Amino acid sequence: MSRQRVCALTDLAEDTALAVEVTEPGEPEPTPVCVVRSGGKVYAIRDECSHADVALSEGEVEDGKIECWLHGSQFDLESGKPLCLPATDPVPTYPVTVEDGDVYVDVAAASLK
Ligand code: FES
């Protein structure tokens, strides 16, 4: 399946993150997704730090980056790449579209850079 609606654009204040779950048909488990608005753009990144499996959506957002609340690694919201230690692996990101005030995410089109 392609994109799914995850929230309204008005649910996302600038430099905040929202935790959502997206279930693909045929998949037993939902995918945890962190939807973020920063710098006027909306991003979607897997809501799971690559270092120790905690929710990125509970971290701080600034200038297109999200910081893991547990050990402080920052991830680029566009690419999912870690910008500092201790995380060394990227986090999957997902295509986002905004249409008529609604935010859509396509978890089937995940990108891992
Ligand atoms: S759990 Fe995220 S940096 Fe350690």
Describe this structure in words.
The chain has a single domain, classed as 3-layer Sandwich (Rieske Iron-sulfur Protein), CATH 2.102.10. 0% of the residues lie in helices and 40% in strands. The chain is built from no helices and ten strands. A four-stranded antiparallel sheet has the order 2-3-4-8, with no helix packed on it. A hairpin with a 2-residue loop joins strand 5 and strand 6. The chain is globular, with a radius of gyration of 13 Å. The structure holds FE2/S2 (inorganic) cluster. FE2/S2 (inorganic) cluster (FES) binds next to loops.
**Mean pLDDT rating:** 96
CATH homologous superfamily name? Answer: Rieske [2Fe-2S] iron-sulphur domain
Rg from alpha-carbon coordinates? 13 Å
Principal-axes shape call: globular
**Which architecture does the CATH hierarchy give at level 2?**
3-layer Sandwich
List unreliable stretches of 5+ residues: none
Major sheet, described briefly?
4 strands, antiparallel
Strand order of the largest sheet: 2-3-4-8
Assign the CATH class: Mainly Beta
Task: Give the oligomeric state.
Answer: single chain
Count of helices? 0
User: What fraction of the residues are assigned to beta strands by DSSP?
Assistant: 35-45%
What is CATH's topology name? Rieske Iron-sulfur Protein
Helicity range of the residues? under 10%
Structure summary:
The protein has 113 residues and is mainly beta. 0% of the residues lie in helices and 40% in strands.
List the helices and strands and how they pair.
Elements: E1 4-8, E2 16-22, E3 31-38, E4 41-46, E5 60-62, E6 65-67, E7 74-76, E8 93-94, E9 96-99, E10 102-105
Antiparallel strand pairs: 1-10, 2-3, 3-4, 4-8, 5-6, 6-7, 9-10
